[in-house]
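In response to the reviewer comment on reproducibility (Comment 2.3), we provide here a single inverse folding case reported in full, input and output, so that an independent group could reproduce the run without further information from us. The C-alpha cells appear first.
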C-alpha cells in the first residue's frame, strides 16, 4: 500500500498547491504516476542484475558472496537500489522490490537462496518488532504530537527506524515473489494480489 500511495499523495499536494485538476493532471499521470514508477522498476532491476552477477559469477572469489554465504548482500541491495532510484527521481520502494525479485530469480537452484531465506525470516521478525516500537512512540514525538507529552528521544527513534524499515519490507516481499509465481502461476498470483491489495486500496 505504501508503494501504491505515493502518486496519489502527490496528486493531493498538486490539488492543494496548483489548483484545478486540468492544470496538472497530464503532468501527474506522465511523471508521478507512470514515469517515477518506471524509473524505480528499471533501477531496481538493474541493481539486482548487477549484484546477482557479482555474487554468483564475480571475477574473484572475494566478490562471489554466494559461495561464502554472506547474507549482508541483502542490506547492500536495499541501500543501493533505494539510493540510486531516489537520486534518479524514481520511487525507491519499488526499486527495492524489483531488485529483490531480480536477485531472487538469478541462479534459482543455488544453495545461497536457501541460506538467505533463513536470514530473511529472522530479519522479518526483527523488523516487525521495530515497526511496533516505531508506531508505539510516534504519538509522543514532535511530528506525531497526538499526546500532550513528548520526548525528544522518541523523535530520534522514529527518524532512525523510518529511514530503513519500510524499504527492507519491500525487499523481503520481492524475494518471495519468484517462488510464489512458480507455485501459483502468473494468473493466480496476479488475481490474489489484486484481491488482497487492490481491493483494500480502492476502498
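Designed residues, in position order:
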Amino acid at each position: 500500500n505504501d508503494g501504491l500511495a505515493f502518486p496519489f499523495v502527490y496528486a493531493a499536494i498538486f490539488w492543494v498547491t496548483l489548483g484545478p485538476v486540468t492544470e496538472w493532471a497530464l503532468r501527474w499521470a506522465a511523471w508521478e504516476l507512470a514515469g517515477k514508477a518506471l524509473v524505480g522498476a528499471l533501477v531496481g532491476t538493474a541493481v539486482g542484475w548487477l549484484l546477482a552477477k557479482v555474487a554468483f559469477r564475480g571475477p574473484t572469489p572475494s566478490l562471489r558472496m554466494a559461495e561464502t554465504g554472506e547474507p549482508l548482500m541483502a542490506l547492500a541491495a536495499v541501500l543501493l537500489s533505494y539510493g540510486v532510484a531516489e537520486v534518479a527521481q524514481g520511487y525507491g520502494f519499488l526499486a527495492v522490490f524489483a531488485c529483490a525479485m531480480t536477485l531472487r530469480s538469478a541462479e534459482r537452484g543455488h544453495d545461497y537462496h536457501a541460506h538467505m531465506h533463513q536470514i530473511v525470516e529472522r530479519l522479518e521478525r526483527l523488523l516487525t518488532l521495530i515497526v511496533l516500537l516505531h508506531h508505539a512512540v510516534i504519538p509522543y514525538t514532535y511530528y506525531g504530537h497526538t499526546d500532550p507529552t513528548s520526548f525528544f528521544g522518541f523523535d530520534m527513534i522514529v527518524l532512525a527506524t523510518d529511514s530503513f524499515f519500510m524499504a527492507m519490507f519491500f525487499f523481503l516481499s520481492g524475494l518471495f515473489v519468484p517462488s510464489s509465481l512458480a507455485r501459483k502461476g502468473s494468473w493466480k498470483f496476479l488475481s490474489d494480489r489484486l484481491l488482497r491489495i487492490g481491493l483494500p486500496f480502492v476502498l
